[in-house]
Design goal:
The protein is α/β, with parallel strands linked by helices and about 250 residues long. The protein has one domain: TIM Barrel (Alpha-Beta Barrel), CATH 3.20.20.140. The protein contains nine helices and eight strands. Strands 1-2-3-4-5-6-7-8 form an eight-stranded parallel beta sheet, sandwiched between helices. The radius of gyration is 17 Å and the shape is globular. The structure holds nickel (II) ion.
Length: about 250
């Protein structure tokens, strides 16, 4: 069975066929899904989906690009939502300097506040980091008790090594299947099997040969196949190992 540790089924891209699609997942070999929220509304939707499907779990959090007008009151809401029994992480949280750096300081502040919350609640975090490697590392270092995953890791092998040394997991997505995937493949090569997670980031980032289409968890097979090739193992082994890794990190029995 496959564990997709990062899929946004709360996204409007699934409004037309969400139920049909989620119901079909076990038949397609997908045994577990974690849906991370990006703001209060999507965190609530992720939790509602987790109530409906036994194999769906949720994370709650404020994404750096979704700070909204009042991130501080949003944080209070997130804290309440985190008490839900199927909430297994704080996420997705982090820094994103790719599109908009006008709220850089606020991004850092809200990221740090959510890391503090995760430590207080003893929950793992799901980190989004785009073009912000230095600041991201600096902030997570302030929280030595924080644990979790750097989702869709896009940094250098050097940064990856640093994170692995500190006990973090790394998430691999569609980009490992892309033609220009050199950096992601280098990182994959040095990531020990017990720290690997597989994720789709649905509806985004479809792997080859589905690139350009809406993504869903059944496409994880293409990512698993590529990882298996790099690691010199059978796809079934990668599937089994990443399933166990996800269950361990998110405390799913
Ligand atoms: Ni995401």
């Amino acid at each position: 069975m496959i564990f997709d540790t990062h899929a946004h089924y709360d996204d409007k891209a699934f409004d037309e066929d969400r139920e049909e699609l989620l119901s079909s997942m076990p038949l397609k070999g997908v045994g577990l899904i974690l849906d991370p929220g990006c703001d209060v509304i999507s965190s609530k939707t992720a939790l509602a989906l987790s109530e409906k499907y036994p194999y769906v779990y949720a994370a709650v959090g404020i994404h750096p690009e979704e700070l909204g007008e009042d991130p501080h009151s949003a944080l209070e809401e997130i804290q309440k939502l985190a008490a839900h029994k199927k909430c297994r992480a704080i996420g997705e949280i982090g820094l994103d300097y790719y599109w908009d750096v006008s709220r850089k300081e606020e991004q850092k502040e809200i990221f740090a506040a959510q890391l503090a919350l995760a430590c207080e609640l003893d929950l793992p975090v799901i980190v989004h980091n785009r073009e912000a490697h230095g600041d991201c590392l600096e902030i997570v270092s302030r929280f030595p008790a924080a644990r979790g995953v750097f989702h869709c890791f896009s940094g250098s092998a050097e940064t990856a090594e640093e994170l692995l040394r500190r006990g973090w997991y790394l998430g691999f997505d569609g980009p490992v299947t892309y033609k220009n995937a050199r950096k992601a493949l280098e990182v994959l090569a040095i990531t020990p099997l017990e720290r690997l997670l597989v994720e789709t980031d649905s509806p985004y980032m479809s792997p080859v040969p589905m690139r350009g289409k809406r993504n869903d968890s059944s496409n994880l097979v293409y990512i698993i196949n590529k990882i298996a090739e790099v690691k010199g193992l059978a796809p079934e082994e990668i599937e089994r190992i990443t399933f166990e890794n996800g269950k361990r990190l998110f405390r799913i029995s």
